Amino acid sequence: MAYLHGKSIIHFDLKSGNVLLSTRDKRPVCKVADLGLCKRRRDTYASGVTAQRGTLPYTAPEVLRTPGQVTEKADVYSFGVLLWELWTGKEPYEGQNYHALLHQLSQPNTRLRPPLPQTPEWEDRGGGPRELAPGWAALVESCWAEDPDQRPGFPEIVKTLRDQALSLKHSARSRAKALPAAAAPPRS
């Protein structure tokens, strides 16, 4: 996403179904797919993006409210929804009526967001540890900022995620060092 935004390209449909995961040298690799709705930023201003673009639960409010003034920060909003989905294991706004949701998200001064969980439900699915939750919640909230200018860019998001990963690695090492050494088995 940082690469696309560096080329002034807005994806407009960033969602879990458009993120492909693989491994290379036993390390996870993430690829963004389905570039069919992409537009250059200057083209969104010149022609105005008038039709709803993307998949509604992931669509930034400004795409619906002021379509001719959309920036790359619309993708950041979508990424925040994707992070929420990873956190909860649920689809955003699951079970809500599409037209009611479209109406709510289109209204000015309406801050509709899926609720952040109190505890990370990913632990039940073998995901990240509990101490990741505060940083993850802060990142999701910053991606969902009502004012697009207040949302981080993808270089900042990548730095935040790397810092969280390093912090987890450091705390795991600290916990491992704090464990007592295993006693040698008794000799027979």
Structure report:
With 188 residues, the chain is mainly α. It has a single domain (2-95, 105-170), classed as Transferase(Phosphotransferase) domain 1 (Transferase(Phosphotransferase), domain 1), CATH 1.10.510.10. The protein is 41% helix and 9% strand. It is built from seven helices and four strands; from the N terminus they run αββββαααααα. A hairpin with a 2-residue loop joins strand 2 (19-24) and strand 3 (27-32). The longest helix is centred in the last third of the chain and has 25 residues, at 154-178. It is elongated, with a radius of gyration of 20 Å.
Brief account:
With 188 residues, the chain is mainly α.
Looking at this protein, list some descriptive labels:
single chain, 188 residues, Transferase(Phosphotransferase), domain 1, two-stranded antiparallel sheet, 9% strand
**Helix share, percent:** 40-55%
Query: Order of strands across the widest beta sheet?
Result: 1-4
Low-confidence stretches: 45-51
Which structural category do the helix and sheet elements fall into?
Answer: mainly alpha
What do the pLDDT scores average to?
78
**CATH fold label:** Transferase(Phosphotransferase), domain 1
Q: How many strand elements?
A: 4
* CATH-derived architecture: Orthogonal Bundle
CATH superfamily: Transferase(Phosphotransferase) domain 1
CATH class value: Mainly Alpha
- Strand residue content: 5-15%
N/C terminus separation: 61 Å
Number of helices: 7
Task: Give the radius of gyration.
Answer: 20 Å
- Could you say how many structural domains there are in total? 1
Order of helices and strands, N to C?
HEEEEHHHHHH
Shape: elongated
Largest beta-sheet characterization: 2 strands, antiparallel
